[in-house]
Amino acid sequence: MNLTDMSERAYWAEFAKRPGMFIGGTGLRGIEAYLMGYDAHSERHGGPGLQGWTEWLTSKLGYDCNHTWPGKVRHLALTDPWPHHDLSAEQEHQVTKTIFELLDQFLSEREPNGDPDPRACPPQPD
């Protein structure tokens, strides 16, 4: 596996399979922080990063809210409102799964010719 030769979609598919290999853990906050850092670094160095991600999530959500993208993902992932920043283990698992599913959809739509990347993985099972 050569990460530098992968499309962004394939890279995130590999990350989703084993986030602990990339960030030393599998917690939601670490995954969100890594995505934010990836986006900032990519934009700083001329890459697309996650440009359009927040707007895309707002479109998926069907309404705007004052949350940044992690909150928008929570709205999409959780059927019940979450009362505070701390999520149960089940909620965190659902949000993590949803992040990677949505990210794959977003990157798929952003690909130049709309063809799916054959290296991207299917959504993770529950």
Walkthrough of the structure:
By secondary structure, the chain is mainly α. It has six helices and no strands. Mean pLDDT is 87; it is low at 115-125. It is globular. 57% of the residues lie in helices and 0% in strands.
Descriptive key words:
single chain, 126 residues, 57% helix, globular
What shape does the CA trace take?
A: globular
Using only CA atoms, what is the Rg?
A: 14 Å
Estimate nothing, just give the exact number of structural domains.
1
How much of the sequence lies in strands comes to under 5%
**Distance between the ends:** 25 Å
The parts where pLDDT drops under 50 for at least 5 residues are 115-125
Listing every helix as H and every strand as E from the N terminus to the C terminus, the arrangement reads HHHHHH
Helix count, DSSP H or I runs of 4 or more residues: 6
Q: Tell me the number of strands.
A: 0
Structural class: mainly alpha
Largest sheet: none
What is the mean predicted local confidence, pLDDT? 87
The multimeric state of the shown protein is single chain
Helicity range of the residues? 55-70%
